[in-house]
Amino acid sequence: MTASLPPSGAPLSHYVSTAPFDPYSVEAMTAGQAKIFQASQLRLMWWKFKKHRIALASGIFLLALYLMIVVAEFLAPYNLHTRNMDFIHAPPQRVRLFHEGQLVGPFVYGRTMTLDMDTLRRVYADDKSDVQRLRFFCSGDPYKFWGIWEASTHLVCPAKDGEFFALGTDRLGRDVLSRIIYGARISLTIGLIGIAVSFTLGIVIGGFAGYHGGVIDLVVQRIIEVLQSIPSIPLWMALAAIMPVSWSPILVYLGITVILGLLDWTGLARAVRSKLLALREEDYVLAAQLMGARSSRIIGRHLVPGFMSHLIASATITIPGMILGETALSFLGLGLRPPITSWGILLTEARSVSVIAFYPWLLYPMIPVILVILAFNFLGDGLRDAADPYK
Amino acid sequence: MITRRTVLGMLAATCLSPPLARAALALEEPEFLKEKLGDGALPPMAERLPKVPRVVNLAAMDRKPGQYGGSARMIIGSQKDIRLMTINGYARLVGFDEHLALQPDILESFDQIENRAYTFRLREGHRWSDGHPFTVDDFAYYWEDVLNNKEMRPRGLPLDLLSEGKPPRFEVIDPLTVRYTWDVPNPDFLLRLASPQPLTLALPAHYMKQFHPKYADPETLKKLIEDSGSDDWTGLHIDMSRTYRPENPELPTLDPWRNLTKPPAEQFIFERNPFYHRVDETGQQLPYIDRIFLNVSAPGIIPAKAGAGETDLQAGGLDFADYTFLKDAEDRYPIRVSLWERTQGSRVALLPNLNCGDKAWRDLFRDVRFRRALSMAIDREEINKASFFGLARESADTILPQSPLFKEEYQHAWAQFDPDLADKLLDEVGLKERRSDGLRLLPDGRPASMIIESAGESTLETDVLELVTDHWRQVGLALSVRTSQRDVFRSRALGGEIMLSVQQGIDNGIPTPDMSPSALAPTGDEQLQWPVWGLHYLSAEQKGEAPELPEAKRLVELMRQWKRSSSTAERETIWTEMLTIYTQQVFSIGIVNGTLQPVVSNRKIRNVPENGLYGFDPTAFMGVYLPDTFWYDGSA
């Protein structure tokens, strides 16, 4: 028996077949099957996500909105602060195609305003003889694109010397549609910046608590409990009141996002912690530890990516909370201040009783708020389902 | 007397035909008091009224005598606003009538010598609301035991009672007459008695003595102090004797209605004072309306509530912008909306703080060319069009044409829209350098960017500021708005932390020469254009700093002259010079005045004027229009 063994140190003699070998020969798969079974995690998630029709639609809607705010100046027919003193509280104008049975392309009728001195209302009437064709890719209010380039091109403008207020005007004759578009810039980004803050805090704090356990975990858990037990609106109000009044509106905007983020990380930290508590017992963690990796590397490189998809899904669901938070704060007069314009600011300016009675179009900023919140919720829902594609 | 009452009562009971019943009703007791009269808790009307009541001749005011009954609801924005009842009730020792002439009201007569010696004659038989006689003892008590009590007033008499720092002599001439005599004139004295927040001269001594150690049993008083949670007797005495904010339901009053509700409460009920001293020409005791309910509500929803018919008499909390809504609600609810004219010098005024802590800005604000430039850069017509339907008067912060002192030049002083001249003036004051975006630079290189403080109470202010921001940007000045609480305004302004603030203009826009011109001179620390100088005057030169601008100094000097003056002609000259200085120097930047104030009243209420002047001082909101003469027309 010993004679067949090679001498000590020499390789063991063995035989390798050079014949082609298909490991799946026992259980042969079609090309289609192979595509599914060998697909990457990301691909699987995408497939799963695609099946969630509403989530997909929401995703596309949100993507479009975010693209829109990049070119807000171009899309808005007027500038944010353009006033038109002759058209105060003008109701929305209807875009028409046919004038006296003839197709003239998109146009609006010109309007005449009369002052009703008895009720002190401005009464607007369509002037059917004044056809004002809308212009596209036209030159309108000059603006500084992204604050850098001078430009004046707009997607759509009113006819020369005409007006086009698709969603009406407010009490200083400012176009509501343009203000909603500009307001989106603030309202939509505030959620993203806020979530970035809360994401970082949540992962770092939750990660350490979950990974190390023990005293750190105990302390973090208690802090989270305390933070979560404080009613959020009064806490926002307190924090917003701390912000120095001399700050410029831009700094206030950043301050508000940080406040929103600072208060929102707790849920995320909890999720991260519970995941880590389970994952840190895995063999690959032990292997990394044996190789001398530090805990930040283990958490960052090995553990978090394991449930990143999950985190993204849950983050998506918290964005609407942030947007609502900003809206609520601004509505209470504690958040952003004019001239910064967000949807919350627009709604604040529309909270008098006359608005509801006579100028309901000033409440239109509510619609994008509702749509965006819904879209984020559906998207988050779809992402969460997709994050676990094997289910 | 009793026989006549009984006969009348029988008449009213037996005569069922309406015209006769109404004729009888003219001398009838209010239904509301019948029960108390029946069981003898109240004496009949003739005994409740003073011997010589104040007769309000309604026919002479183009109004009609009315009938008793009904209760009126009003909405107030906070509990503090129960003071509205004192303001609107407008029972004063002397008070203004509709034409702003002084009339004796609680007093039967008054007379004065050279504005130094004032003799007041009380009405014989006048009683507090609890039936106790109102006499010179009440004046004597307040003078000796409150005003001149060292514990009560460690710092001496209130400023209004001092003339050149000297207190008056107080004399009781006879049981119905008192006299206050100064060595030098105190022309402000009667006006302070007639003002919406009047100077107190008398308290119900019979009631207040229980809180005063001089009269009260020490043990009982000690217990009262402990029960009330006050620190000492002075605190208790002050709490129990508040007349401006009638928070103590037990405190007897001379007002038309007396409070029945102890705060805190959501609703305050005021009930007719059965011993009130005014009657109409038919001899009926006023007020006509039995009860007033004050409902506390969030200020923001007062217009909505008024438009839903939840108030019977309302002006506070309503703004011109709500008019359209209220007018529309006329069709749905039994309300009537009228428009009165506001009396402020400017509905919205911008006040550059001449005591600003930042040296560069302070120097600019003190430069009249800068203030004029700020004023002329504002397009008042646009603001008028946008916020007031063009119905307001574009004007500097000054008096209204209704005032006998009005001159057109005050209204137009530096109030024209002239951005070119503004630009030129700004260049002259050392703001020639500009940044690439056109913003001017201060001499020290900082951008010329100002912060204006607003209490953020009304969208009107926000709108006006938005427009002004744009107008000023055109001449290269940036403005940003900071919202802060009105309560901390004064201390921050005194500390120099405020650059500019936005407020209403001078309060009394319809003065006569006999009214005090104090709003035009640095006389108070609530004047945010010169709080430190104002404090100097207010504290009798103990605190703050003396004015440094020659014009401001001159204003203080003129103010002192007015205080010493003893003839109307002399005062008119002083007023004219002060108005000229104030408007020429643009110490506050007015925008529009004479704006309209919606007044909502129940359609059944009679005698509410269709047009009136609305303001705190001197008309005491509705006070000079005598709300005690408003009545419910049951047949309407």
Automatic annotation (TrEMBL), chain A:
Principal location: membrane
Top-level taxon: Bacteria
Pfam families named in the record: BPD_transp_1, OppC_N
UniProt xrefs under CDD domains: TM_PBP2 (cd06261)
Keywords: Membrane, Transmembrane, Transmembrane helix, Transport
Keyword match Isomerase: no
Subcellular localization(s) per the UniProt record: Cell membrane
Topology in membrane: Multi-pass membrane protein
Classification via Gene3D superfamilies: MetI-like (1.10.3720.10)
Database matches in SUPFAM superfamilies: MetI-like (SSF161098)
Membrane-spanning intervals of the chain: 54-76, 186-211, 250-272, 311-336, 356-379
Start and end residues of each ABC transmembrane type-1 domain: 184-380
InterPro entries tied to this protein: MetI-like (IPR000515), MetI-like_sf (IPR035906), OppC_N (IPR025966)
Family of the protein in this entry: Belongs to the binding-protein-dependent transport system permease family.
Protein name, entry field: ABC transporter permease
UniProtKB/TrEMBL annotation, chain B:
Tree of life domain: Bacteria
Pfam families assigned to the protein according to its UniProt record, in alphabetical order: SBP_bac_5
Family annotation (CDD domains): PBP2_NikA_DppA_OppA_like_4
Domain annotation Solute-binding protein family: ranges: 102-521
Signal peptide: 1-23
SUPFAM superfamilies named among the record's database cross-references: Periplasmic binding protein-like II
Localization per record: Periplasm
InterPro entries linked: SBP_5, SBP_5_dom
Keywords: Signal
PANTHER family per record: OLIGOPEPTIDE ABC TRANSPORTER, PERIPLASMIC OLIGOPEPTIDE-BINDING PROTEIN (PTHR30290:SF62), PERIPLASMIC BINDING COMPONENT OF ABC TRANSPORTER (PTHR30290)
Family membership: Belongs to the bacterial solute-binding protein 5 family.
Protein name per the record: ABC transporter substrate-binding protein
